[in-house]
Amino acid sequence: MIGYVTLGTNNLARAAAYYDALLADVGAKRMMETEQFVAWSVKADQPGLALTQPFDKKPATVGNGVMVALEVDSTAKVDAMHRRALQLGGTDEGAAGPRGEGFYAGYFRDLDGNKLSFFYTG
Question: CB 42: neighbour CB atoms within 10 A?
Fold first, then answer.
């Protein structure tokens, strides 16, 4: 059902460089971009992640309680991606680890304060 998720940014070049480096580790590449928007996906027919400068020209803000969860294929990949997000300048919102039976996740905020998670179920 989800085609893509869009996050707001106030500095597209900086945010795009962060996600280029982070998402490359899961095989995602830029699939579309304009002067105001960049989108990544692993495959064109799978959900993607996008960044945009708000259309209304007002500052991008973070929604409290809003989070984007990105699925990966192992707990080791969750650990690695959470660590990578922090190495690139993100902030920790919950160390990678089990969050109930069969669910493993690590939480972080990107350079604009958007909350994301890498997770694995299995």
Answer: 15
- For 101, the enclosing helix (H) or strand (E) is none
Whether 59 is in a domain gets the answer no
* pLDDT at residue 120 greater than cutoff 90: yes
Domains in the chain, number: 1
- Over residues 100-117, the mean pLDDT reads 96
Tell me which residue of 72, 98, 102, 66 sits closest to 85, measured CA to CA.
72
User: Which H or E run includes 20?
Assistant: helix 12-24
The residue written with tokens 């105001």 in the block is 36
CA distance 44 to 113: 27
CB atoms within 10 A of CB 90: 22
**pLDDT confidence of residue 44:** 86
The tokens for 99 are: 């969050």
Contacts of 40 (CB under 8 A, 6+ apart): 19, 20, 23, 28, 29, 30, 31, 48, 49, 50
Whether 85 is in a domain gets the answer: yes
Q: Model-level pTM? A: 0.89
